[in-house]
Amino acid sequence: MSRILAAVFILSLCAIGSARASFGDCDDPDYLGDFGPTPGGASPLGPILQLNCVIEFEFAFDTPGGTRHIRAIRDASADWIVGPAVLADIERGARASVTAMALLGNYRIADVTILMLDDAHATADLTGSGRYVGALTNGFADSAECLVTSFLLGPAGEGERVAYNAAHEIFHCIQAASLSPEQYATAVGGGAWWAEGSAEYFASLALPELGDIHRRADDFNDSIANEEALNAQSYGMAVFFWWFDANRGPGQLMTFLSGMAPSSDAAAQHTAMRDALSDADWLRFAQAYSDRSITLPNGSALALNPPGGEALIFDGNVTRRLALRPFVMVLATAEYACGRWANTRTPATVALSAQDIAGGAWSDYPDEVDARAPANGRYRVAALPTGSDREVRIRAERREGCTPCGGSTALDICLVGSWAQTGGGPVEWMLAQGMPAEMVVDIGPQLVVLEGDGTYWTMPFTGTMDAVITTARDTWTVDGSARAAAGGGRWSAVDGQLAICQDSGGVAGQVTISSSHGSGTMPVNVPGGGELQYAYSCSDAAMQTVLEFAGMSPMVTDYSRLAAGLPESEDPAPAAGETDPADADGRPRWTAGCPLIDPDPRVEDDCDRYRR
Asked: In what order do the strands lie in the sheet with 461-470?
């Protein structure tokens, strides 16, 4: 009895191994009419003609779903175009595809028939795209046979393209059988990026010796230069799948494709793309493209030519902007003038990466840039956003120039620290000059930090002035208000002389002057910059500076050291639940006075909470 069961088992295996192919009758006009419909639904054969069918080859192969078959057919009169070389290439592409399928893991495929056509019944442009189509595939998830039409006239029939195209179309048969009908239906719509891109990749996996025979890298280069979204592309997305091969391997390809959207709608495609790969992975793809490090599966180089993109030039305290759209690769360059810079990125959550042009790894866009050496301060920039349309802003502020202040880099350690003005200064000096004015000036705290690296910072402050000036001719009233921006630059101290070289900052406001003849308002806008020399004295607790003027008394300013660091911003944070309008750079208004870098990390204040 056991021998009988064993025999039955062996016979059943033989039956499975020799399963018959589900091929249609190639002499049947109705069967031929099913080959290669265009996206519009019309058959490329036009009026169906009876073919005198010749089967050129047929072979079986094993798949995870059982034995399948591939055959190639032609009309008997087409022997003039289907010569031995063409036939050999068609079969070469088919058999190479079977070898490559073994690398895919779990997949499905129906029996495949390749109709070799001299395109006597077809036009050169079957899709209306203006581009010649070498082959078309008609395959469906519930079909027992996948039909491939291979046109052998024109560029697609030249040399080894025939083999490559055969492998490409056979992969469409895998897509048709392995994916849902709704997913595969997008292959001629919004899903063409993954359908055609992965088919090109598979052909190069099957026939690595042919390389990028269709120069899909050129297509991808053009699309990126034209700022096309990845999901709006087609064959050129082979570049992405070549990157995917190196990072995930062919065994993950079908898993990736199975996650694609069942709708051509761009929003649906974007959702599927976000689910299939992390934001970090998409960004790594953009970085690899910028690096020209993506290769074919056999390691051969691709003709990658990433566009330079927008040039972000930071030659002063400026804000540069980059527009971000979902799955539109952003490649740019950033170049900083000589100096040491601090950057603020808004929104800070945007994944924006940079790589020093001189070499090195990609990293998050730098918070600080030291461009004091000639070779420094130049970066490649890459982003591949996956969310909604937005803009990223980079605010750069120069914290140190490239020339010594006062001709020296010497420092006095006594001066290093945080200082608050406690007396003297410009207002008292003006009043002491005997001006014919009654003046009331209200100025916020004036604070300065002299760093041990030869840089300095000032906190912003606001001030108002009300004055009445009386002369023999008339009386003027003056009302003014101004805000001094956060400033910074370099300092040095030699032989009792303090040199201050301002690289950033400035004062902006307005003054209204009225008299018996009328009134007028004028803006005040004094940019930061310049060099001043002070005599100074310094102790543990106090500092005094003296600025000399020719023919006038000197301006003396007194400071006290802040042992506990700088106080909080002069503008309080909004209470819980309250909102506050943003300034031009997107920061809450109450934080506009916060310095970019914490002057004293020992003190917790509202600016610290903003910086986090």
From this structure: 437-443, 461-470, 475-484, 506-515, 518-527
| pLDDT-based confidence at residue 190 (cuts at 50, 70, 90) | very high
Strand segments, DSSP code E, in 325-434 are 330-336, 340-346, 353-356, 363-364, 368-370, 378-383, 390-400, 417-424
pLDDT value for 39: 37
Give the bridge partners for 400, in sequence order: 340
Sequence letter at residue 563: A
Q: Is the dihedral of CA 125, 126, 131, 134 positive or negative?
A: negative
The pair of structure tokens assigned to 207 is 């026939």
| Coil/strand/helix, residue 372 | coil
β-partners of residue 518 are 515
- Torsion angles phi and psi, residue 19, rounded to 5: -55, 140
Task: Give the separation between CA 53 and CA 138, rounded to whole angstroms.
Answer: 19
Q: Are 371 and 338 in contact (CB under 8 A)?
A: yes
The angle that helices 238-248 and 279-291 make with each other, rounded to 10 degrees, is: 110
Look at residue 154 and tell me whether its pLDDT is greater than 90. Answer: no
CA 440 – CA 352 distance, rounded (Å)? 49
Question: 361-386 burial, b if ≥16 CB within 10 A, otherwise e?
Answer: ebeebbeebebeeeebbebbbbbbbb
State the Cα–Cα distance between residues 486 and 503, nearest whole angstrom.
Answer: 11
Q: CB within 8 A of 58, min separation 6: which ones?
A: 21, 69, 70, 71, 72
The model's pLDDT over 75-115, given as tens digits with 9 standing for 90+, comes to 888 788 888 999 999 999 999 999 999 999 999 999 999 98
Q: Which has more confidence, 519 or 610?
A: 519
Strands 475-484 and 455-458: unpaired
Is residue 576 predicted with pLDDT exceeding 80? no
- What tens digit of pLDDT does each residue of 363-417 get? 999 999 999 888 899 999 999 999 999 999 999 988 777 888 988 888 888 998 9
Identity at 30, one-letter amino acid code: D
Q: Is 581 exposed, middle or buried (0-12, 13-18, 19+ CB in 10 A)?
A: exposed
Write b or e for each residue in 70-84: b if 16 or more Cβ atoms lie within 10 A of its Cβ, otherwise e.
bbbbbbeebeebbee
Residue 426 phi, psi dihedral angles, 5° rounding: -60, -40
Hey, is 13 helix, strand or coil? helix
Look at 545 and 29; give whichever has higher pLDDT: 545
3-state secondary structure of 336: strand
Distance CA 285, CA 543 (A): 56
Among residues 447, 474, 464, the alpha carbon closest in space to that of 605 is found at 447
**pTM for the complete prediction?**
0.72
pLDDT at 611: 43
Tens of pLDDT, residues 242-275? 999 999 999 999 999 999 999 999 999 999 999 9
Q: Determine the Cα–Cα distance for residues 197 and 243; give it in Å rounded to an integer.
A: 11
> Does position 575 have pLDDT exceeding 60, yes or no?
no
Per DSSP, 346 falls in state E
Going from the C-alpha of 392 to that of each of 61, 397, 422, the distances in angstroms are 53, 17, 41
E strand map for 132-205: 135-138, 145-151
